[in-house]
Amino acid sequence: MKNIESDGERIIRVEGDIASLKSSVSSIQGTLALMNDRLSSIGRPNYVLWLSAMGVALTIFTLATGGLFYFMKSEITNQVTPVSIKAASSEMDRHKLNDQVGEIGSRQAKNEKDVSNIQSSLKDQLVEVESQFRAVGQMQNMRHANNQQLFGLLWKKVYGEELPMSSFYPDMSRNKSIEH
Fold it and tell me: Cα separations (Å) of 165 from 25, 111, 141?
């Protein structure tokens, strides 16, 4: 009888083990179902996670860009300030140069007027000089003509015939408006 009891106990124990295995299998089935749900959720996009990551990235980008713009603004301000000072100085220099150009233009006009006056005075003086040269030339021509007449008389007395006269005296002056 002992064997029967022991078989009965064994059966009870086996039934308990079966119940325990059933609960383990159902627990494993639940775990597998949970894992299946998680695996299927991994296959779908997790929009909340993506939006959170994009928000963090946008915040970091905004802070970095803001810092960069602040740095650039300070650098530009440091560079623009000397440039604006240089621009103001350049503008003052330009005004001075424009004034100097105006003075040079007025001096040039005055100098041109003076040169014109000197040229007209020189023309008048050169006309006078040319008139004097013409008068001297005419006197020399008259002396030459007188000498030729004297030679002609002497020739006639010595040789008995007349000496041919060549008393053509051309006007060599440049200014033809002066009268002889």
Answer: 165, 56, 13
CB 163 within 8 A of CB 141: no
Q: What pTM value is reported for the model?
A: 0.34
Domains of the chain, residue spans: 1-44
Tokens standing for residue 85 = 């000072």
Integer Cα distance of 90 and 179 in angstroms? 65
Q: What is the largest CA-CA distance in the chain?
A: 213
Q: Is 130 in contact with 178 (CB distance < 8 Å)?
A: yes
∠ CA 124-126-132, nearest 5°, is 110
Query: What's the sign of the alpha-carbon dihedral 63, 69, 72, 74?
Result: negative
Q: Which of 142, 149, 146, 147 is nearest to 163 (CA)?
A: 149
Chain centre to alpha carbon of residue 60: 40
Contacts of 151 by beta carbon, 8 Å cutoff, 6+ apart: 163
Q: Residues 53-99: pLDDT tens digits?
A: 888 888 888 888 887 777 777 766 666 566 666 777 778 888 888 89
In angstroms, rounded to a whole number, what is the distance separating the alpha carbons of residues 119 and 23?
133
Q: Name the H helices within the chain.
A: 2-43, 47-159
